[in-house]
């Protein structure tokens, strides 16, 4: 299970939007000067991301804007999602490029590659749309770390 902390920026009936700040641990790695991943992380470190989190151990009604929360996502979802996002468009491109070149030569192969890539991206978007409410594919709320709202005491 991967965990991340962030700040709630919006509360909806069935989810919350959490702002996270991208951090890197590349500064402590021995290969930091020669690693391409380290260069990319230096460019994007400190950038903010918005993540939609579904109810988990905490329901969105228990959150308020500016609360600090912990969200989680299973590791296998990251692996499965990476395979789908990267492999489906590439496989679509290769399949239609091969088919296009068999029927219409190089021009058919090029057009098939573009059509296959577009179809693959469309399939990825369709998959994401179908699973957008599925808690097993989405980050979920784990706990409220600190609440910005103070309880109102009467009397």
Keyword list:
155 residues, alpha+beta, 5-stranded antiparallel β-sheet, 2 helices, 5 strands, 42% helix, 23% strand
Your description of this structure?
There is one protein chain. By secondary structure, this protein is of the alpha+beta class. It has helices at about 35-45, 75-130; strands spanning about 1-10, 15-20, 50-55, 70-75, 140-145. It contains two helices and five strands. The protein is extended. A hairpin with a 4-residue loop joins β1 and β2 (about 15-20).
Question: How would you spell out the order of helices and strands?
Answer: EEHEEHE
The coarse silhouette is: extended
Computed over alpha carbons, the radius of gyration is 21 Å
Note the gap between the termini.
Answer: 45 Å
The tally of strands reads: 5
Q: SS-based structural class? A: alpha+beta
Instruction: Report the β-strand fraction as a percent range.
Output: 15-25%
- The residue ranges in which pLDDT falls below 50 over 5 or more consecutive positions are none
**Main beta-sheet annotation:** 5 strands, antiparallel
Mean pLDDT: 85
Give the % helix: 40-55%
Annotation field: number of helices: 2
Order of strands across the main sheet: 3-2-1-4-5
